[in-house]
Amino acid sequence: MTIPLPILDLKQCDTEHAMRAFIGWWPNTQTRAWLAEQARQAQALYGGRMMQSDHFHLTLAFLDSSPVSALQSLATRMAGWTVPDIKLDLTVRDVFEKPRVVWAGPDDSQKQALDALQQWHEAIWSSLTGLGWAQPPRPFRPHVSLLRHAQIVAGRAHGHRLSPQAFVGDGAGLIVSVPCEQRSQYHLAAMMGSERTGA
Question: Per residue in 92-110, pLDDT tens?
């Protein structure tokens, strides 16, 4: 399993600081190439800023701004977590109007995959709440963001069927967003089900 991001060693970070973080499921190279093409097509319709190819992911748990000390504790535990075998197809492109995001994801007919993802999401949050995080009330909607800052006309139907593409996972991990001069860069702090960790 690989996630194509620079490594962040949390042991080298100030424990008093807070960092934006999430747990994400990364697609393999072929899936990322397909997502990049979908992002280019969507940008022709909506404008906005395409996600970097190496940043395409399905968010399993958004941790927002979290103390480094808590992230260090989480990273040490994630090696013991398992990544389930979930068969998932990306079949629809749609939008989130308020945050101005265009995304790709599974349609509602994929009940087995959606149920498995929901169970994985809940299992992760069960562990996170035990470590002190509070689960947000919003429902879990599995998706991969393609564009941000899109020009979306409110109230218009934006759902679009896509030729099915398998989402082939290539690892799940704890990701920290590090601010840079022009845009944030994701860094890998720990891998799920692996000894590779930044804790």
Answer: 999 999 999 999 999 999 9
Rg (CA), the chain: 17
* Rounded CA separation 191/197 (Å): 6
Question: What residues contact residue 127 under an 8 Å CB cut-off, 6+ apart?
Answer: 77, 81
Q: Give the chain's mean pLDDT.
A: 92
Q: What is the pLDDT of residues 114-144, one digit of tens each?
A: 999 999 999 999 999 999 999 999 899 999 9
CB 56 within 8 A of CB 3: no
Sign of the torsion formed by the C-alpha atoms of 135, 39, 108 and 173: negative
Q: What is the C-alpha separation between 12 and 8, in angstroms, rounded?
A: 8
Neighbours of 65 (CB within 10 A): 10
Residue 159 CA neighbour count, 13 Å, CB half: 8
φ, ψ at 5 (rounded to 5°): -130, 155
Sign of CA dihedral 50, 56, 60, 66: negative
The whole-angstrom separation of Cα 24 and Cα 26 is 6
Cα–Cα distance between 125 and 135 in angstroms, integer?
7
pTM above the 0.90 mark? yes
